[in-house]
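Q: What does the assembled structure look like for these inputs?
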Amino acid sequence: MATRAVIAGVGITPASSPRKQTSSSLELVQEAVWGALQHSGATPDSLDGIVIGNIDGFEGTVLGAKHLVRRLGLGPDLPVSILNTGGTTGGNLVQVAARQVRAGDRRRVLVIGGPTFFGAEDLQSAINTNSPMIVEQPLGMGAYHMGAFYPSAYTERFGATVEDFAVSAVQDHEHASRNPYAHLRNTMTVEDVVSAKPLSYPLTMAMVCPVSTSANALLVCAEGTTEDLRPTPVLIKAFATSSDPYLGGGKNDFAAMENLAILAQKVYQLADVRSPREEIDVVEVFSPYAPMQPMQLEALGFAPPGGGIDLIRSGATRIDGDVPVNLSGGPLCTNAGVAGELAPIVYVALQLMGDAPEAMQVPGARRGLAHGTGGTFFQFENLAILERL
Amino acid sequence: MSTPITTQRVHWDLNYDVHLGATWGRFMQGLTEQKILANKCPECSRVFVPPQAYCESCFVKTDEWLELPPEGVVEAFTVAWLGFRGGPKPPYAIAGIRLDGASTLLMHYVGGLDLGNPNTIREQIGPGTRVRAVWAEERTGQILDIAHFEKI
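A:
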């Protein structure tokens, strides 16, 4: 039987705004790496690879993450794989590390997601440069402007209101208030969300993620090689990625996350998940804009089309519900670029290990779903199913 | 104790040439003549605008060209109340427009709207609104040769 890959340690740094952050990228990454090694009990000399990523142009460097790795002090001989898949880099780091381990090429790989939104003076301006050049880049869109297209079409099809979309922001904030690592930990009411400063119709500032700084790291190991490590290993059971066409205009339907639905079918089949709501205990989706979350829950099969908001309103997605979603507070409350996209996997792994901060731990969680998305109009999706061994 | 200096500003100022190639080159030439050119996949018959050299679904070369009418329907949109450094001055409206006969959406500005009151935005350019291209007076072969679309 082929080697399987497990997660056996995670490190998270508390998040803050760039303005309040006094550590450098390197210092934050070091803190996350030391955190992961400490959590796992692994020594630096037991590592045989690093997978780290960056997003072109966001950090005032084109060196990628290459300028960071040597300075981590983990030794001169570790092979390094650098990934750069834009907003989805964080989720893809784990997929690449898992493939290296599954292939038998490596046994203990350190995965690092740094604070890549840290530097841009105006992040939306940097994101606009990632828009398809020539035909869409000149049209004045940063990330949240693109994100705002979805609720406009969803409202047309399902009649949702801004108040409806606000429920997912209210819940994310409620969850973030229990997460000691989250950036925004204030609770909000629907009225607070709706009356916040308008950014891009129908999104208000409270429906749009903050720019955060933090770093995350985790350890991907070959199954059966973690006897010396402390945490309960978490199997990376199944994962895949999927992409829409390059141009935003190539997307077929803005009222549904079609690409994610296709990906979910594939990953559920790999993981032998037939009834996601009954078989998955904890979910972290990448929803930096509040309306994305109900749409993603629909695409993932937790609710029928148009039923995502009702699912959240029912309480099912709260910590005491049958399918808790974004107990971390999600990217709506903490979004630090590559670290933010790695976060869903980090938090799901912590939940399944039983090592999440006490106020956010789902008792007995055995199987979890971690999702990431990015790119122009979120055309890239990645998804993983993790299981406690 | 004095405070450490933990941030310094870095600035880049670089120009690039993007080489469009034959397919987008022909599209841009069309715009200078107030024509919206599209092309078609010989296998799935989908019509792409902007045109594509290959069909992303069928993995075949797209060789049949056609001109689309400068009219279509808004399918998704937003109004930017807040823009970004180097971008257009807000507020401005952007939409995904399904030109008549197209299989893809064309992203573009929608002009001629009263953006003063958020409550009237949806009735003005909500999905289903028919719009028509307004051409720029000076056209140099850029997407902004269409100045914006306007409600019909």
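The interface with chain B takes residues 21-24, 60, 119, 121-122, 124-125, 128, 133-136, 138-142, 145, 148-150, 152-153, 155-156, 197-201, 203, 245-251, 254 of chain A (CB under 8 Å).
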